Amino acid sequence: MTQQPTVSASLRKRAQDSSNAIARMYISMRHLLNRGFYKPMGVSGTSLRKALLTLKPEIYGTIAETKTELNGLLYVIDRLPEGITECVSINMTAEEGLSSSSFQPIIPAKRRRNCYRIDKDQMVIEVTRGRSEVYDILTHLTFLYIEADKICNRVYIPSSKQTIREWQKIEATATSTKTVGKNELESTMAYLAQLLECTYNEATDFYNRFQTPKNPHRFIRLIYHMVRVAINERSKGNKRVITFSAMLRDQIGHHIHGERWANQLYQVLEQHKLVDRPIHLVSANRHSFLNTIYAEEALGKTAKDKTWFGQFIDDQTNQKKVNQFAKKQGFIEIKDNTGSNVHAQIIDTDKIKGNKYAFAKGTVLVVFDYAFGEQAYELMDELLKTNIGKQLESISIMGKAGIMNGKKGAIMVPTAHIFEGTSDNYPFENDLSPDDFASTKIPTYKGTMITVLGTSLQNKDILTYFCGSSWKVIGIEMEGVHYQKAIQSAMHIRKTVRPNIKLRYAYYASDNPLETGSTLASGSLGQTGVVPTYTITQKILEKINS
Predict the structure, then answer these.
(1) Using CA atoms, how far apart are residues 433 and 505, in angstroms rounded to an integer?
(2) Spatial CB neighbours of 531, under 8 Å, sequence gap ≥ 6
(3) Which of these, 162, 269, 463, 484, has the minimum number of CB atoms within 10 Å of its CB?
(4) 480-501 pLDDT per residue, tens
């Protein structure tokens, strides 16, 4: 008899406690969404904070300690709109017409969503990606409020309703309209280091990491406004509040944006007379398939290795050359106008000249950008309802995921997806295998992937349990189960897709949440992510041609 992997009773108990905390958070957030509003410092907000502090997610580092978690703060701020820390009121809405107003959209650096600053106190965030997006935003906001209150506890004196001297010095720098001199800046950073419970070197390092060309003192001003709002709530009773519009509550989960997106994509295919051709669907980024197919010929250079592609991804001049060349050879770019924020590309391979990939006659590639959580089900479900399903030859999913045993840049090839917090599991036959990557020298892992409710809600206890149990989990991501639900229902229930189409899943490791200093909050992959991304892209193209 085969010995099954076991985990210690203490680890199992800690993992269960963590799982219960996640469940409490999601139940609370769904309740608040249905209710329509809540106050972060009220009873409902307190329950969210307690659950997050019990969980102590790896991505939020020292959230449960008195010191300020600066890596987590940088991660969160990059995913929320500029200026949100200054606002007392945050309103989440559906797409309700603000795009036609004079308000300029604010798009976070690392999360595509339209946000609008209505006045100095209110920020509106358009939610078009379903409940996963609501949960993501609420989790990040809860983290912000916890960190703000930590610092507020150190600077605000309730008995006198005054602030300490150090805070007043920081306030003077943060609100100054004049050029801040070197001595004043260094003094301010020394005060900040004291209040944040970090070293002066750490504070200056994060000052440099937060700054932008237009806002060099972004770090100081961000901390100031976070805490200012918290102080005003205690001293003046200006309560922070989060609201959800009636239209958002009515529309969420109804696939409104997904249906528009699928119809837009189908109409473009129909317009170019491509709907009756063999179609291969690919969920990936917006550069790897375009560059792999066209870049070498467009730029008149030969890629010596995969790192070559990373040299011009952010080079607008060269990337423009590739785009212009590609458009003459069957490349069609579809800018999303449905609110889904998922752009797409169509490649008519019959128009490609002299390419190294010998595509079968009539082959059409449909490449669309990464979805977000539950949005993956909405988009794939609606797309497979169209006549595209009848012509479908394969579906390939290339994504990024956290790896359990391995380093950033490794490749994971799943054999099944399981859904966190449920008994739902989706085994499938993957047309990709570790053998396909054997010659690449990139470490490749095969096994079960877990689809989590949110990457910012995982800790070492629950992840170690998944890794060591009989589930044999190799990595975590947010979309796999949702794609599988849509694909399997289209295959076996709706019968809109043939049951024998090829399925290909491969992920590259963006982080190792079990390894200190290697979480998503530790920074971007850079060139480390280029090699596995373009390697997977190449293998998918080879499979399509085989």
Answers:
(1) 9
(2) 305, 306, 307, 409, 442
(3) 162
(4) 999 999 999 999 999 999 988 9
